[in-house]
């Protein structure tokens, strides 16, 4: 080995004839710390892996080199370099290292190396990373599906219904055919209920049927999953004994939003007096082998026609406990010929079924019997009078009841009116407002012949309104704002589909579950119109009719209406010349 040059440090030169000298130095004493091998103190940003890879410095070699350069006094000082005043001063005077892009790249690289080491050596890290990746992928998939579904819903909400309907023919039951199949309709997300108040018997000889009329029928259809078929017959209820003959069971029908309760009106029922009336209640699963529950008011009288109009809805009330809500199913049934305030002044009854105990005072303070139907209130107008026919039409949704009085005389003889009732947290119904027609001449318009409410919207039909011609009919939309119902608009058809004299538009009305579509039936014109809310204005979107000329002559399309919930909801209207019901769907 050649002699070291003055500027060369021991350990920095290798023997050309042999391997590089890498033998470790022998242990050193504390006084000779400069000749030992040591590592500089780790910087705050350095990881354990970087420290392992950090090169070691030989202080013995460094000391020799420094001594040759005249710096040996610093190396051999007995004072520890970590406590040296001169070192502390230099450290104090030395500026903090400035982060540069290169330094950042080194930091990023070291973080990546740390991550790789953890991933290789720690199985838990593998599982966590894998789970996070799968969770991220699942979230992206769900987001994509949600956005696609939202777009489909948006497209479907503005799409028009098919012009060709699915036709529901009246079924023949027990050798009897229909007389008014489709005279009343209602729909939920799962079911369609069709009333047939006057089915007739069939026979080869007229004499066999001359003295017999069936009491009425109701047919329950379930939404079909089959292509080109909207509905399938699911269940049927027929009154066909001599005691129920002529009861007109099915004059009015209603199904609750949760599809669990169906109510049917039978206003000519004689069980509690001649044509006193009754209502029938069927509950899911709507088994036609189980007789429906029959109810009547506690003060029913002859010729009251109780059940001429019915509606059912679900809501909640505060529980009598410190917290929680009680589910309540409410039925409102009209008796337009009730005589409490004069002959045919009318009245309405509220029946409720509680699934728990609500606050004290509910249902007029009666003792609540859980899961039993109870008559809670009878609603009468404070200004009611003879031949007003209060409750000619009724509808309930959540905590709002709207009651039509089509012969009210406030704005002229038989001009009509509608009363709005609301349900308080105390569990009782109270009058909120009376709605009157705004036309200068409303005589005999029959405002209130049909009513419906949904959310903050009320629609009132006036089937003999003269706004677009004599008895052309109209429908009026009211909006709730700051606790007050105000007239929002009168629905008018476009020029391409004019309404003519005698169409009686407004004989039936309905609102879609989202409150964005209003249906108006014009049975004497055999047509129904759909209006859609766009930018705060109701515009005509669709119209429905049956193009067969011969059928149209005697058809009453628009006599009844039902809008199935949902943006793709089916619109159903009845009935045709042969008592068909027409179901219009969307291709979305």
TrEMBL record:
- Ranges that cross the membrane: 127-148
Pfam families according to UniProt: FG-GAP_2
Q: Which of UniProt's keywords are assigned here?
A: Membrane, Signal, Transmembrane, Transmembrane helix
Q: Where does the signal sequence lie? A: none
Chain intervals for the UniProt region annotation (Disordered):
1-105, 156-180
Q: Where is the composition biased (Polar residues)?
A: 13-39
What is this protein's name? Answer: Uncharacterized protein
Q: What does the organism's lineage look like at the top? A: Eukaryota, Sar, Stramenopiles, Ochrophyta, Bacillariophyta
């Amino acid at each position: 080995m050649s002699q070291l040059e003055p500027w060369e440090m021991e350990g920095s030169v290798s023997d050309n004839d042999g391997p590089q000298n890498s033998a470790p130095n022998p242990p050193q004493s504390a006084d000779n710390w400069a000749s030992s091998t040591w590592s500089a103190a780790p910087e705050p940003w350095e990881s354990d892996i970087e420290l392992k890879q950090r090169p070691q410095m030989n202080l013995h070699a460094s000391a020799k080199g420094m001594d040759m350069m005249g710096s040996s006094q610093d190396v051999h000082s007995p004072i520890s370099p970590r406590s040296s005043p001169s070192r502390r001063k230099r450290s104090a005077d030395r500026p903090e290292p400035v982060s540069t892009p290169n330094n950042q790249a080194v930091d990023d690289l070291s973080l990546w190396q740390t991550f790789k080491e953890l991933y290789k050596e720690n199985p838990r890290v593998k599982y966590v990373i894998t789970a996070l990746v799968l969770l991220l992928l699942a979230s992206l998939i769900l987001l994509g599906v949600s956005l696609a579904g939202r777009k489909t819903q948006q497209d479907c909400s503005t799409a028009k219904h098919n012009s060709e309907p699915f036709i529901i023919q009246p079924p023949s039951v027990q050798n009897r055919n229909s007389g008014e199949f489709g005279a009343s309709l209602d729909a939920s997300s799962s079911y369609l209920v069709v009333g047939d108040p006057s089915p007739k018997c069939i026979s080869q000889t007229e004499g066999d049927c001359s003295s017999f009329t069936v009491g009425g029928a109701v047919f329950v259809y379930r939404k079909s999953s089959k292509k080109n078929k909207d509905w399938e017959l699911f269940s049927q209820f027929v009154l066909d004994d001599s005691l129920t003959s002529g009861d007109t069971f099915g004059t009015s029908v209603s199904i609750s939003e949760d599809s669990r309760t169906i109510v049917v009106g039978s206003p000519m029922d004689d069980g509690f007096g001649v044509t006193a009336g009754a209502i029938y209640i069927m509950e899911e699963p709507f088994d036609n082998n189980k007789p429906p529950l029959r109810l009547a008011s506690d003060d029913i009288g002859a010729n009251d026609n109780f059940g001429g109009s019915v509606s059912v809805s679900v809501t909640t009330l505060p529980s009598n406990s410190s917290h929680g809500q009680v589910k309540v199913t409410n039925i409102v049934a009209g008796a337009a010929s009730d005589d409490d305030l004069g002959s045919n002044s009318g009245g309405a009854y509220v029946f409720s079924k509680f699934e728990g105990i609500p606050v004290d005072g509910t249902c007029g303070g009666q003792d609540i019997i859980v899961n039993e139907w109870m008559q809670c209130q009878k609603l009468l107008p404070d200004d009611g009078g003879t031949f007003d026919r209060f409750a000619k039409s009724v509808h309930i949704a959540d905590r709002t009841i709207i009651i039509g009085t089509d012969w009210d005389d406030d704005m002229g003889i038989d001009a009509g009116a509608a009363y709005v009732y609301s349900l308080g947290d105390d569990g009782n119904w109270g009058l909120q407002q009376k709605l009157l027609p705004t036309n200068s001449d409303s005589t005999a318009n029959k405002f209130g012949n049909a009513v419906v409410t949904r959310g903050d919207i009320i629609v009132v039909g006036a089937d003999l309104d003269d706004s677009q011609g004599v008895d052309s009919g109209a429908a009026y939309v009211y909006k709730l704002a700051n606790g007050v119902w105000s007239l929002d608009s009168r629905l008018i058809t476009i020029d391409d589909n004019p309404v003519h004299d005698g169409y009686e538009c407004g004989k039936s009305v309905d609102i879609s579950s989202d409150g964005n579509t209003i249906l108006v039936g014009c049975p004497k014109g055999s047509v129904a119109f759909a209006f859609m809310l766009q930018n705060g204005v109701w515009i005509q979107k669709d119209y429905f009719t049956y193009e067969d000329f011969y059928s149209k002559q005697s058809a009453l399309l628009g006599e009844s209406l039902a809008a199935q919930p949902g943006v793709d909801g089916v619109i159903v209207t009845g009935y045709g010349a042969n008592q068909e019901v027409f179901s219009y769907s969307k291709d979305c």
